[in-house]
Amino acid sequence: xxxxxxxxxxxxxxxxxxxxxxxAAIQELMGGRFGEMSTLMNYTFQSxxxxxxxxLRPFYDLISNIAAEExxxxxxxxxxxxxxxxxxxxxxxxxxxxxxxxxxxxRNAYHFIASGQSALPIDSMGKPxxxxxxxxxxxxxxxxxxxxFLECGARANKIRVYEMVDDPTARAxxxxxxxxxxxxxxxxxxxxxxxxxxxxxxxxPIPDISNKKFxxxxxxxxxxxxxxxxxxxxxxxxxxxxxxxxxxxxxVLN
Amino acid sequence: xxxxxxxxxxxxxxxxxxxxxxxAAIQELMGGRFGEMSTLMNYTFQSxxxxxxxxLRPFYDLISNIAAEExxxxxxxxxxxxxxxxxxxxxxxxxxxxxxxxxxxxRNAYHFIASGQSALPIDSMGKPxxxxxxxxxxxxxxxxxxxxFLECGARANKIRVYEMVDDPTARAxxxxxxxxxxxxxxxxxxxxxxxxxxxxxxxxPIPDISNKKFxxxxxxxxxxxxxxxxxxxxxxxxxxxxxxxxxxxxxVLN
Amino acid sequence: xxxxxxxxxxxxxxxxxxxxxxxAAIQELMGGRFGEMSTLMNYTFQSxxxxxxxxLRPFYDLISNIAAEExxxxxxxxxxxxxxxxxxxxxxxxxxxxxxxxxxxxRNAYHFIASGQSALPIDSMGKPxxxxxxxxxxxxxxxxxxxxFLECGARANKIRVYEMVDDPTARAxxxxxxxxxxxxxxxxxxxxxxxxxxxxxxxxPIPDISNKKFxxxxxxxxxxxxxxxxxxxxxxxxxxxxxxxxxxxxxVLN
Amino acid sequence: xxxxxxxxxxxxxxxxxxxxxxxAAIQELMGGRFGEMSTLMNYTFQSxxxxxxxxLRPFYDLISNIAAEExxxxxxxxxxxxxxxxxxxxxxxxxxxxxxxxxxxxRNAYHFIASGQSALPIDSMGKPxxxxxxxxxxxxxxxxxxxxFLECGARANKIRVYEMVDDPTARAxxxxxxxxxxxxxxxxxxxxxxxxxxxxxxxxPIPDISNKKFxxxxxxxxxxxxxxxxxxxxxxxxxxxxxxxxxxxxxVLN
Amino acid sequence: xxxxxxxxxxxxxxxxxxxxxxxAAIQELMGGRFGEMSTLMNYTFQSxxxxxxxxLRPFYDLISNIAAEExxxxxxxxxxxxxxxxxxxxxxxxxxxxxxxxxxxxRNAYHFIASGQSALPIDSMGKPxxxxxxxxxxxxxxxxxxxxFLECGARANKIRVYEMVDDPTARAxxxxxxxxxxxxxxxxxxxxxxxxxxxxxxxxPIPDISNKKFxxxxxxxxxxxxxxxxxxxxxxxxxxxxxxxxxxxxxVLN
Amino acid sequence: xxxxxxxxxxxxxxxxxxxxxxxAAIQELMGGRFGEMSTLMNYTFQSxxxxxxxxLRPFYDLISNIAAEExxxxxxxxxxxxxxxxxxxxxxxxxxxxxxxxxxxxRNAYHFIASGQSALPIDSMGKPxxxxxxxxxxxxxxxxxxxxFLECGARANKIRVYEMVDDPTARAxxxxxxxxxxxxxxxxxxxxxxxxxxxxxxxxPIPDISNKKFxxxxxxxxxxxxxxxxxxxxxxxxxxxxxxxxxxxxxVLN
Lengths: 254, 254, 254, 254, 254, 254
Hints:
CATH topology of chain A: Ferritin
CATH superfamily of chain A: Ferritin, core subunit, four-helix bundle
Structural class of chain A: mainly alpha
CATH class of chain A: Mainly Alpha
Distance between the termini of chain A: 26 Å
Number of helices of chain A: 9
Order of helices and strands of chain A: EHHHHHHHEHHE
Oligomer: homohexamer
Shape of chain A: globular
Largest interface: C-D, 59 and 59 residues
Strand order of the largest sheet of chain A: 2-3
Number of strands of chain A: 3
CATH architecture of chain A: Up-down Bundle
Number of domains of chain A: 1
Largest sheet of chain A: 2 strands, antiparallel
């Protein structure tokens, strides 16, 4: 079960200009093979399917907590897409004025015909996200390795979208995802280390560019966001109530 | 954002016998066009994309709350699938004993090769769920009509899976979904009525068979589960803490 | 069986200018989830699969007649696409003059590489129409509800394409589809009313804009086209011959 | 435009026994890459997209007429599937009796969950038919070559389904399709010969087995069905009325 | 087994200008239904699945040799795509300069987000190549007819891409493919003739334009490239060593 | 370019019994996301797209060599599938004897209708392999990490297929793939180590079972097959001729 809080992960600035083609590119971070739908659903199914929860509790908790956090990521990407699409056309009551004329040349026609200028679970070419992107093998080591790779692939995509789009809305969103995705990379690497002893730290960062190169990410890391592991899952109801929310939400990864 | 509670919607009885082909059929309720992945993601994206939240607050709340509840449905379907797959094979340390031999004739090979005998976001024929099943048109009346139809289509599928599988695990799960899906059908019909004045009650039930015919659903309705609208969404953090959880979770639909 | 008449539903004006991107957008009305391929094939399969034709004859006739009419809609959409693509390039005998140069930046490359600048069963992003869009549940009430929703969704798409493209060819085509689709919305609503007593009229129109706002549709409604139910199906051969064609084609919906 | 006649191409005998797995196999002839949906839609789009109708009239007529006939083939395949599915389960009013129990092991779950035990536009593995199977290149010679190959591929599939299923319903249907498909193979070969002079007769038959080996086909050929080209298309309304239907339908090829 | 030689089929000139949209169009020749992935994989699977190799040796050799050659075609198409993408953006170490800005409006976003500006097994609209494009029927005559048609369809696509793109890199690549594809058309036609006696020569060329109209192809034909059948397959290891490579590679077709 | 040698990687024993459902399961190792089509095409495209070959030569060589070897793996898997399908039906000249009757209940209908009882580029559920399985990011570290994960995922699938099928043909094939895949896992791990210093050895083996538990693999390892890196690529033609083949093929990994 989940409880849903009407709060977006971070505030995003308004776009300088609406930009349907930027929104189209950002869809890769939503519904691409390495988008947030993929991280959300991979970890969600892995947590549903986790066998041996008692013995392997910390691993179950890790996957469940990250799964829960990913929900806020699809929410944030949707928010950015919606901001970038708002105002791209001038809708009114008279269709003969061709209010959507500008969209004929836009890269993603679904944004204008199917979705009313808002986000969809599709990628940057309009391909729908699909369940074959979910890997849940029943083998913990293999799942963790998958997750580690998935987060690294996702990081590459985030960086490239950042390099494509200079809009502050998009960059604030990507900056946040870089920081949080970075935490997940570390978390999965440590989990693999605990399970096997292998030290993956020398692989970092993949790709070979520091989060500090991205001002929007750097700012958040200066606030310590890269050192926090959100605990959004696995608490009993009693514990939720006993704990203050601030404490529940920010438990430093150790 | 979501908080995830480590609690399944209802307890399910253990299966009488493991049954991979029953599990394969139940996948339709997970990843089919009318499965719980579809209800979850339709309402989730509609809530992300909702414009005019102030003016149309009750509709936004409705969609968000049902979206949040649907998460517990994919969790429950996954749980039922996992129970039915547990014990279908005798895995050990010696592969030469062909521990998975029985699965060669099973209908869903992914359950044995890809997922380690657990749930996947696919349908009863192994087709992955995909994002083209999400309808989020930006037109509230149309979205509500879609949701009403989607829930009716989902109800038909649930009934047919019930008629295929007599295992108590599966039936308890389907019974629960029939009751909660029934609440959602009523909720979307009422929302359409509030928006337009149209009275859809005479359409009920679709298909033309009462929930009371299903003992597992009837039992839950006798407990009043069909009269409760879960409020799992839209609360501020402050409100979550102020309210007791019981009160948060059970607010009668009016 | 069908007999095919070499006659397009309405004459379309020549385009002001060829426009491959307008043609690309219009493909949504052909091969999108809510395009005319979908209405054609949904009703066709529902009519093939209809059980209880004697007892439920008027419903069978309704679905079969609309199915037959939809064929003329895919024909009309194809015609509009073909007109808009004609003349977009200057083909000749010398390939070294790069006669298709302009198409490199066009949104739909299939129109130039695969189809020789003509219509295909694909949507506005090039995704092929597919059989998963067909809903034929064997439950009449549910099929009718589906059809009612499908026509409303199709209406939204038509309106948006109208708002994107101001070419007179496209608008004449969309205007015609709006009128005929409007008849089908009413027809399915009435069928549901006859079956259940539910009155869906207060839902109209979906989306909330009258056909009268579209000059090309208004003109046709002034001619009464919105009050005619075509009877293109279900006649025996004897009856076809006994009836004059005019009488066959225009039988007022009652 | 089409007129639809409520008449199936041939009567089919009742199945000896219902057989869901036979119905599943026959779906290949409906929605497979070489199924009747493919022949119908290939020729339909080629006829819509045909440029130069005046100069190349006989070729346009050929394609249009075969397109029209193919509609009766999807109808016939649907009919056969429906007959084979009828009675596979005992549906009643009490779901607790597990009326669909036998379908859990059936190969095609969609027949029981999605379609109410009737035909769908899918293939023998449940893969939906899709628009990428349509070839309409705008080059007449290439389209005719495609059609010739498509019919040969379809013939191979029909033969194999015949060899899989010994039910008289299925075999009567396949026998009819073999005869009519044979006419189309000859027709496209002749059309290529007229256009280019190439004589393809020595290629016949593909695969290398005569229709006479199939008793159900042989019987129809003894009635001359393999020498008739149906003229179901291209008539003006005036001509339809002037001609008697019998004459319209049976005009011997060339 | 294969041995891979680090040598591209022909040298390609550098592009006049990088052109991501030209690269996007060329992807059709890689991953489209008629692209080189399709010719490679069709013949590869047909050779793997060939039954009766002793009796039908020349046909097996033919298919295997062409299969082996097609590998050099996917290599060449990839090379052309990579050349056209090189330099389309100015990547550096500072992401805040938006080094990929120009790609936001490019037709194929995968080239920039997924592939690091290089080739992928997708078509001109980004649709992934898929295994349903492979035809391997087990019937030699039918497979050969398929291959003949496939090569003709591929030729049409090559010509159209040539007509879209005037870059010398692209045209040199297409010119080479036209010559070699022409050899394969002749080879499959002759194979059909040997098997059946049917003479398909009068069908040539499809489409109706000579390779001589393409200067890059004409130049290669003047060197005799259209009269050579590469023998890249079917040799035993002993023979490879005994033969000089030149002789192995160029054995004139019969 | 490739040269193709008419030699299968290892001899396979004849099956004890034909087994279409075992063949269906083995298709996962051919056309599944982790099948040999995926390893072949991932490394092939990565090698085509490799930038900086001079500076990073050993990495380019590694990927190219493994790419070349993977071709022999799709060949071997096809061979095993074909052996298991041979004799599953008794085809003859009289179709009325229903020679394919037994296939009606087989899991993979394509094997009987489409492919003439031979291998296809599809997975264990009939889903076609597709190009979205190819990862070629242009980032060497990320591609190597992907390849390492891909090989581990492939190893899990091979083990599970081994545990499903006890036929000696299948097991000999899987045993060989386990050994060679094991070499590739080590090779990619070492490549990552050379590039970054990270030592991944403690992760081995994934899944947590030694190749020695599989008699068919153990036998090959006792012959040293797990210590050999095949050099099937990157040689110039001159070198091929100068070297003896034995030396070319077996160069110990160091």
